[in-house]
Amino acid sequence: MVRRAKLRSLAKINLDLRVLHKRDDGFHELRTVFQTISLADTIEIEYEPARKTELILDDPLAIPDNLVVRAAAAVLDAMSVRAKVKFRLNKHIPMGGGLGGGSSNAAAVLLALPILAGRKAGRRLDLGTLSDIGTQLGSDVPFFLTGGTALGLGRGTELYPLPDIQPEPLLIVCPTVHSSTADAYRALSRGLTVTGSSTIINSFRAFVRTLGEVRSAAAASSLSANDFEAAICLQHPQLKSLPGRLRRLGAIHARMTGSGSAFFAVFPSRVKRDEALTEWQRNRGNFPAIAAEIVSQRRYQALWRTQLRDHVTGEAIWPPQSKYE
User: Fold this and answer.
1) How confident is residue 194, by pLDDT bands cut at 50, 70 and 90?
2) 140 is catalytic
3) What pTM was estimated for this model as a whole?
4) What per-residue confidence (pLDDT) applies to 27?
5) 58: part of which helix (H) or strand (E)?
6) Options 12, 22, 41, 227, the catalytic residue
7) Sheet of 289-293, strands arranged across
8) Domains and CATH numbers, the chain
9) Per the CB 3.0–4.6 Å rule, which of 26, 128, 238, 246 could disulfide with 254?
């Protein structure tokens, strides 16, 4: 018995990201708004029950310590299931850009493997259990288990869904500059206390409130911030001019995502976005750019039901449940 699935593993952007004090556990206290976007990797999975677990990854980029394998091992162990699982990973989400590709890949495996294994193959894993496993793999992983627009607190793993926003067109610019997350935090020099933290929190609350009212990343953009952006641009001065250049091409808003180095720009229409992409490729080809759009939670979860439709029940619950007894 072999079961197969082909998955699109979507990227994310941070519509807003504030970094507060350093916590006792070594992580930083964050306030962020995550958003899934249409840029995606693809993962092909072939699952077969076995007496001994064997995980095989075909990854042309040979990414060390790939989260796909780590996620598969963790979820099979949690289910008390042994299987031979083959993966083929095709990367389209640029690595080291703050777009969450590795975390999205891990979440895709956490969602898909229990469905391919079947309901009676092992212990059933609810969303809370999958989130706990995801947290051990990476701070962004739990967000990709539900997608859409979400408020992230703490390490970013304490999540609260926000109302879906408009599917606005985006341009993702991916500088050929690797931004180390550890270096980004060091550049911020956040200690156990942060001067002006109440101002940061109030500003963040204003963005979240406005985003919920207008349901538009572009319309709320004047209140947004990313605390990493200035620090990363100091380390890599060639990035500093990117937001201005994107706005001159018609973007309503341009901002770094995560700890960089990718930037996203929101456009008023697909036509304007496509014109900007053409102009960017003509005159600014040193930094690749990719067309994308905002993906709501409703659309994100519908995508998952579609790509696993051969293996799931028709129940309107999340995460989807395996049809296999």
Assistant:
1) low
2) yes
3) 0.94
4) 81
5) strand 54-58
6) 12
7) 253-256, 263-266, 169-173, 289-293
8) 3-162+297-307 (3.30.230.10), 169-293 (3.30.70.890)
9) 246
